[in-house]
Structure formats: structure tokens, C-alpha cells
Amino acid sequence: MASSERSPAEEAEASRFDRLRSKLRLLYHGQSPKALRFQSIILLVDLAIIAFFIATPLLRESETFLWIDYSIAAILAIDLIARGLAATHPMRWLRQLPVIIDIFILITLLAPTWLFNLGFLRILRLWTLSRSSMVWRPLEKRGLGEYRDTMQAVINLLVFIFVVTGFVYTAFARRDSGIAGYVDALYFTVTTMTTTGFGDIVLPGTFGKLVSVVVMIVGISLFVRLAQLIFRPAKVNFPCPQCGLNRHEPDAVHCKACGHLLNIPDEGQG
């Protein structure tokens, strides 16, 4: 037992580490004004990173590209480490899909030349950010929580467009496809997923046709999902006292899951 006891120095070090984790947990997940300011700064940094990812094909030839790339890699690494320390169960946090995607994005930032062909996947950072409570918490406080599904559908659509654009640009540029630059790849992606099909840009070969088919099917599905969320009646959050179903139509009288009588207040009611 005596051999397992820690020295005063080790105890002090462990105490400082625990205090650091507690402080980071409060900053990342707290509701205090200080925590909210910190979360707002993190959100702005994330949006700046996403803007860089979108502009990467246009900035790659710039002399400052590598400097910006490695700076963003350092910021992302610090943020990942801090979020890991703030997590209650770090190993469980490490297995989450958004975290795995962020780690992959960090690797592509550290090796921009070797992993250029996979660089377009960096835009998935927007998808991981859209799963963050730091984004939705302030919106819900402002009464915009009911639009979360719609905004999520818009983000999913944007992520799909830019991922496909990056893939098409990487795989088919300058290969008798009519794609000479990033804007051409974006133009092809949008015209294909909307099934407009002007035909001025066509991906060559069987593989190109298969890519076009996938873009059309998935793109139309995302458009339909977005249209449903925009034009169908918005649902309200009101837990059913009996089964717990949380989402109901504003004028619902009975729960559609269990039939229990509901008493959903109007917007004007407290």
C-alpha cells in the first residue's frame, strides 16, 4: 500500500491537472458569461477555419498558404487537446465520429502536400461543427431552436456540395472533362445534383458516370429533405406526459405515438 502512495509533489501535480480539466470543462460546457464569450471565440475561429478550407483550392499557389495551413493545424490541435481534457470520459469522446473526422483533418493539415488528394474532406469540419452544442445553445436561447432541423439540412447540403466539388476537382480536372478549375467542378456539382444537366461538362468514363449518378441521387435526396423542412408545418417541443415523445405539430390534440391527450400552449401563452 505504501508503494502506491504518491509524493506531495505528485499530489500537487495531479491537483493542478484536475483543476485544469475542471476549468476547461467549465469553459467548453458552462453557461457563465465568461464561458459563453470563450465559446463564441471558438465558434468564430471554427468559421474562419471553414472559410480557409473552402478557399484552399484558390489559395494553394499563394506563398502564404503553408504558413496559414500550419497555423490552423496548431489551432486545431490545441482545440482537440483542450476538448479531450474537458471531456468527462476522454476515451469515449475519442471514439466519437466528429472527433475522428477532426483528427483526420488535422493530419491532412500537417501533410498538405502528401494528402492533397484528400484535402477536400476538410470541409467536413463544417459538419462536425454543426453537431456542437456551442453552435445551437445560443440559437436556442434566442428562440431559434425550432429551426435547428432546417439549418442542419442546409449545412448537410452545403457539406455535400463542397465535398463532391473537391472530389470532382481532384479526380477529374484536366482529364477531357471540361473541368479546368475549382469553379468548373462546383458548377458541375450543382447542375448535376439538381438534374439540370446542361451537358457542357461531362465526367469521362464509366467511373465518371457512376459518380454523376451518385451525385444526382444523394443531391436530390438532400434537396427534398430541405424542402420538406422548409414547407411543412414547424413542430414544437412539448414532451408527452405518457410516452415522452418530444416533437409535435403545434395544433396537435393527441400524441401521435400513444394517443395521450396533450395541452400544448399557444405561442402567446406563458
From TrEMBL:
- SUPFAM superfamilies (UniProt xref): Voltage-gated potassium channels (SSF81324)
**Entries under InterPro entries matching the protein:** K_chnl_dom, K_chnl_volt-dep_EAG/ELK/ERG, VG_K_chnl
Classify the source by domain of life.
Bacteria
Single GO MF annotation: voltage-gated potassium channel activity
According to its UniProt entry, one GO biological process term is:
action potential
Q: Which Gene3D superfamilies does the protein's record reference?
A: 1.10.287.70
Potassium channel domain spans which residues? Answer: 159-230
GO cellular component: a single term:
voltage-gated potassium channel complex
Predominant location category? membrane
Q: In its UniProt entry, what is this protein called?
A: Ion transporter
Q: Which organism is it from?
A: Devosia marina
**Source taxonomy lineage?**
Bacteria, Pseudomonadati, Pseudomonadota, Alphaproteobacteria, Hyphomicrobiales
